[in-house]
């Protein structure tokens, strides 16, 4: 994915609601819930990606998992341009970002691009951050945001499904999943800096409202 603007998510201070007993990192990060939500998003947007890419930030707000989604311009020669800042503008200010996902166009590459890998890597400091993408054939993968090299990131991939094999009735389903009350978060202000993909200089600072 060629991304016109990549987003860096600054420090988010999180205070969890009181709960008894130790909770695993998987539970606190809502990994199963996030994966289920992302599969729903791919079931909706994967079939629409014939000549576009869709990009979304997964976030938690008021105990509800949602995605802030944006669409690329029409792809040319299997290259797509996505402005990820557009997704940010629809996200609540007090959201807790948990990851990102994007589709590849049906005639595009089955592998990650350097922009895909770099974008997730730049957000690796965010607790619980996960990254997902779908290949042209519908296969859905997650990969490690801690990898900066495309070959190493590709080697870290794990398959999580295929949107062409989604259960009947899933496509078009858009109701976000609610995690159990014991895992709800109280989150402070989320600030995001947006820069162009071809420079390391910050061009703007967004406070999402």
TrEMBL record:
SUPFAM superfamilies (alphabetical): JAB1/MPN domain
Listed name of the protein: JAB domain-containing protein
Source species of the chain: Steroidobacter agaridevorans
Upper taxonomic lineage: Bacteria, Pseudomonadati, Pseudomonadota, Gammaproteobacteria, Steroidobacterales
């Amino acid at each position: 994915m060629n991304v016109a603007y990549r987003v860096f998510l600054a420090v988010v201070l999180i205070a969890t609601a009181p709960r008894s007993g130790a909770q695993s990192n998987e539970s606190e990060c809502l990994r199963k819930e996030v994966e289920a939500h992302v599969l729903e998003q791919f079931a909706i947007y994967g079939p629409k990606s014939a000549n576009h890419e869709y990009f979304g930030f997964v976030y938690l707000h008021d105990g509800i998992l949602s995605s802030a989604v944006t669409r690329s311009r029409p792809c040319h020669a299997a290259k797509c341009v996505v402005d990820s800042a557009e997704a940010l503008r629809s996200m609540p200010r007090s959201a807790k970002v948990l990851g990102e996902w994007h589709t590849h166009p049906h005639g595009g590459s089955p592998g990650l691009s350097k922009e895909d890998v770099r974008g997730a890597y730049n957000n690796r400091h965010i607790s619980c951050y996960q990254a997902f993408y779908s290949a042209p054939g519908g296969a859905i993968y997650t990969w490690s945001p801690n990898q900066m090299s495309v070959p190493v990131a590709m080697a870290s991939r794990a398959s999580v499904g295929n949107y062409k094999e989604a259960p009947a009735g899933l496509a078009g389903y858009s109701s976000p999943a609610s995690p159990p009350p014991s895992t709800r978060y109280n989150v402070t202000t989320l600030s995001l800096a947006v820069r162009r993909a071809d420079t390391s200089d910050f061009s703007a600072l967004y406070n999402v409202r």
